[in-house]
Design goal:
This protein is mainly α. Helix 1 crosses helix 2 and helix 1 crosses helix 3. Helix content is 55%, strand content 0%. This is IS5 family transposase.
């Protein structure tokens, strides 16, 4: 999902807004989302991944043997 798509869904979907704990009076723009998500340290992403994989293993949905990553490449403005 692109930052633009995420911004749209956060503005459009009550479920997305509830998950992100956003107040109804505020909708983040894609640039704010990009800056915020980019500020997450690699160590934090690793912890998130470990928790998700642990839960997936317990639910017998995933064993973690193969990992596929999709990335969006953007150019810096300026």
């Amino acid at each position: 999902m692109t930052y633009q798509e995420l911004a749209f869904h956060l503005e459009d979907s009550a479920s997305f807004r509830a998950f992100a704990r956003l107040p109804w009076s505020w909708s983040p723009q894609k640039s704010v989302l990009q800056k915020t998500i980019s500020a997450i340290r690699p160590e934090t992403w690793e912890q998130i991944n470990r928790v998700l994989l642990s839960n997936a293993r317990q639910a017998k949905l995933e064993d973690g043997g193969v990992v596929r990553l999709d990335n969006t490449v953007t150019s810096e403005a300026g």
